[in-house]
Structures are given as C-alpha cells and as structure tokens.
UniProtKB/TrEMBL annotation:
It comes from the Bacteria. This is HNH endonuclease 5 domain-containing protein. The lineage of its organism: Bacteria, Pseudomonadati, Pseudomonadota, Gammaproteobacteria, Lysobacterales.
Length: 264
C-alpha cells in the first residue's frame, strides 16, 4: 500500500531532498477547534469559497516540508493551540496580557516574551506557507527572506511588520469559531497579508515604506516588550470582511438542507 502522507521531493523550506510530509496550510487543530466552539455543528466546519458555503472537513494541504521542517513549525503551532484554547467565553491568551490604560483601551502588553515570539513565528510561517501553496497570498521577492527567518538563518525582514488582535466576546458572534486562509491586498505602504484563527486576527505588512514606528511595535521586532490589540469582532476590519463573504454565500450540499437561504 502506498503511503499517501509522504512523497519524495525537495523541501520548500530547507531545500533538501527527502520524504515530504502532507503539510497543512492552517494547523489541523484549528479546524477541530471550530467544531468544539460551535456546539450546533459538531460534525464539520462550514467552508466558504467561491460564493458558496458547505459542510466539509476538507483542508488545504500539500507535500511541502520534510519531517525536520514540519517539526520546526509544530513548536509554535502547539504553543498557539494552547494560547487559543477556549476559556469560558474567551481564549486562554487573555489571561497572559495586561490591558493598558490607553484612550480606547485596545492595547495590551504580553506578559510572557515567549508568547510574542511564538505568535510572530507562527504568523510568518502561515503567510510563507500560503505564498508557496496558494495563489491568494503572495510574498513576491520577500519569500526568500521569510524562508531564511523561519529557518533561523536571518532576522525578520526590516521591511515587514506583524501584529495580532485578540477578538473579545461579542453578543452576536463567537470569533473563536472562525478560521480564514491568508490573503493579500495592496495597500498604500506595500502589501497586507492577513488571516483569522480561533479568536485571533493576524496582520503582516510588507513593503519598503513601512513606518519605523510599526517596525518597533512588530511582534517580530527586537523590542523587549511585545504588544497586541484587543478588539470586538465588529471593530476588526478583517473579521468584518470575512463576515461579509459569509453573509452573501449560498449554502450547498448537506448545509443547504439545514440552511436553505444564505448565511446572513
């Protein structure tokens, strides 16, 4: 019997030849988390693509990484799995931040340096994976510098900045049950690569004209203190964009039998 979980080839990260694993773009645990949070739909996540919505366990995978590089990524993935574990109506990470007395009360200090390091590495790894696995996220000439950072061979690119927002409890939606794959959009300072995952909203700006202030507060920067923002889902532009797509998607398959109209 052929083992479909592996194949021989060149690892996209270390560029060495070996057995390639069937690597996930988004960690498999995040799909299980969706079902854990949404008790009304325990069998499969709702997948939205191309204007339609369906119940499916399909996940984006590709024979991409060797076992060593897969393990390298798994350290931060496992750390994120613990940080995003449901805790009452929020995620565990809220226990490890200190909300600062800023005008809108949206800024928080990470109490543990390692959390910031893992958040930054995880975000960079997902954005990089998306750039080599899909057509919806492109790093262009920065793909190689991201790859070197992920291998530990170089510092995080000075032309990039990573930020994370913790999505608070909302009376209308539970953001912990939302996952989106990275996508890229052109902005006035370069490119924005963003995705949602289990109560977190990740943003990675890349471009030569990124303000120095953004680099200083980047989770991947050299600053000793690491910060995150705290937002309601309805205050997060990335979440609102995802919700708009969900609201206009037409149900199909088994999902259509339960919800014959749109998700809105």
């Amino acid at each position: 019997m052929v083992d479909i979980t592996k194949m021989m080839g060149v690892c996209a990260l270390c560029h060495k030849h070996g057995d390639l694993q069937n690597s996930h773009l988004i960690p498999a645990w995040s799909y299980r988390r969706i079902c854990e949070v949404d008790a009304s739909n325990p069998k499969a996540p709702i997948h939205i693509s191309g204007g339609t919505a369906a119940l499916t366990n399909r996940q984006t995978t590709k024979h991409l990484l060797c076992a060593r590089c897969e393990k390298l990524f798994s350290k931060s993935e496992d750390h994120l799995a613990r940080l995003t574990k449901p805790d009452n109506d929020q995620i565990m990470l809220f226990k490890h931040v200190t909300r600062l007395d800023t005008p809108r009360k949206v800024l928080a200090l990470l109490n543990r340096v390692e959390d910031g390091d893992h958040l930054a590495y995880f975000a960079a790894s997902v954005v990089w994976r998306a750039s080599v696995m899909t057509s919806s996220c492109r790093l262009g000439p920065y793909e190689s510098t991201f790859r070197q950072y992920l291998l530990g061979e170089a510092q995080f690119p000075r032309e990039a900045s990573i930020s994370v927002a913790l999505l608070e409890k909302s009376p209308t939606v539970d953001a912990r049950g939302w996952v989106s794959e990275p996508s890229s959009s052109r902005v006035n300072i370069g490119w924005l690569h963003g995705f949602l995952l289990a109560g977190l909203a990740f943003r990675c700006f890349v471009g030569k004209t990124i303000p120095m202030e953004w680099q200083k507060v980047s989770l991947a920067g050299a600053n000793l203190k690491k910060y995150v923002s705290i937002l309601k889902p309805e205050e997060c532009a990335d979440f609102l964009a995802a919700a708009e797509l969900a609201g206009t998607a037409e149900p199909r398959g088994k999902f259509a039998k339960t919800y014959p109209s749109s998700l809105e």
